[in-house]
Amino acid sequence: xxxxxxxxxxxxxxxxxxxxxxxxxxxxxxxxxxxxxxxxxxxxxxxxxxxxxxxxxxxxxxxxxxxxxxxxxxxxxxxxxxxxxxxxxxxxxxxxxxxxxxxxxxxxxxxxxxxxxxxxxxxxxxxxxxxxxxxxxxxxxxxxxxxxxxxxxxxxxxxxxxxxxxxxxxxxxxxxxxxxxxxxxxxxxxxxxxxxxxxxxxxxxxxxxxxxxxxxxxxxxxxxxxxxxxxxxxxxxxxxxxxxxxxxxxxxxxxxxxxxxxx
Length: 263
Prior knowledge:
The chain has 263 residues and is mainly alpha-helical. The protein is built from eleven helices and two strands. It has helices at 13-16, 25-38, 41-64, 68-73, 75-104, 121-141, 143-152, 156-162, 167-178, 182-209, 212-241; strands spanning 5-9, 244-248. Strands 1-2 form a two-stranded antiparallel sheet. The longest helix is centred in the middle third of the chain and has 30 residues, at 75-104. It is globular.
């Protein structure tokens, strides 16, 4: 019986906690854009699958809580639904992040990958809830702590999925590792935010002056480019900081050119 062999791509948790990694801001952005130009279809399909599920769930929860208009008028009910949706959809979003990591290490991915980690739903959902609460609390107390935590904890879900960590282990590891290159992480995310803002402004302007349909068209076009770019950015950052451990398979285990990553 052959012994399993593994390779480590990129960084590692051991190196990350000592700051032994480097983030090239410009290089990361260029690599993510190149991936977006060549391999965005699967991520776009997966994203719209999640959006469809999210919208359906929101309508169902809204109806159960007194109707759509009542929920929109009540901040408490709206917050409750948003928290429930964030928790329930977090395993699917984690799958989307893993798709970004898959492409970042040179593998392919399918839209169905968003359903691949449902067995870890409890841990992923708990991690998402804790991170969301910590970030929200930081934002309410003072803006800077919220921003710091939002950036520092942005890669916790993949740690739960790919490294099989518990929520507290993933959060602690993320905080320890990202403190060394936090500002570079912030620069990468700031760039993603900067290219998103004009699209949001144009969509809002079109909705007010022209109509909903043109605004929706521009929004969809923007999402099909910005969303894959964002998840590829996260995937590349994860590879650079924590790395990915993969099992080495025999040459005849798969078809050349059709390799798919599965954590």
